[in-house]
Amino acid sequence: MSDMFMTPPGDSFNWPMLKMSYLTDAENIRKLLPPCFDAGDEPRVELTAYNFPINNWPEHGLVTKVSCKYKGQEGWFCLGYAIDKEAEIFQSQERFGQPKYPAEVQYHRMGTEVAARAIHQKYTFLEFTGEVKEDMDGGEEFDDFEYWLKYSRRVNIFEPGFDFGPNVVVVKARFGTMKKQRVEGTLKLIESPWDPIAQNLPVRSEVESWLWYPMFIDRTVEMDPEGIDAAAFEPFADTIGNSRWPGVCGGPVKPFGK
Q1: Comparing C-alpha atoms, which of 39, 245, 69 is closest to residue 145?
Q2: Domains contained in the chain, CATH given
């Protein structure tokens, strides 16, 4: 497999993505999904740590997604991209509705050791340590559906509603796999008022983790012109920063049931 990369060793394009996946409580995922989304076939959470060049500069990030269905299509509702590049946050949100927000993400592989950590508002909310064990079958090419939201709240703060949207942005990508390696490790989710994965998406199964070297085949980012019912969506518009975690203006989210 040494000749599978088109770029030199050490190039940012050669970094694998660290995937961490587990089942959680179905009801908690339903509470996070805005109107027009249904729960997926299984209540799965997928966390992805990455280092990938965006606009010709490396970006360290952590993606948090939950399984969902949109118009019958199984996919992922994205709660946030915690990233270390300020410039990307605002243009990604404004142009695409992509929920990027500022954080410190550490991620490395050294030999067989793999480690990741995510910090936001001085809270460390995720830690992972593991060891690469073996190569895995990469499987066939597959389609991946991810959903973002694009909207602008009404300028008049005394009136509810939106000056634009709300709309669903459908990100359809087709991937292959250049290499996939099983990682045996420990995922530690730590309570945080700003990134409440531990409180609101607790682990209810064995955590599966692997390194994935993706093959990017095709990708489209399109806004569904149908839109979302504005009145039904209104409670979902208050969020923490540019993430999709529900919150209030100027403050973090409260855990479910508290």
Answers
A1: 69
A2: 12-236 (2.40.400.10)
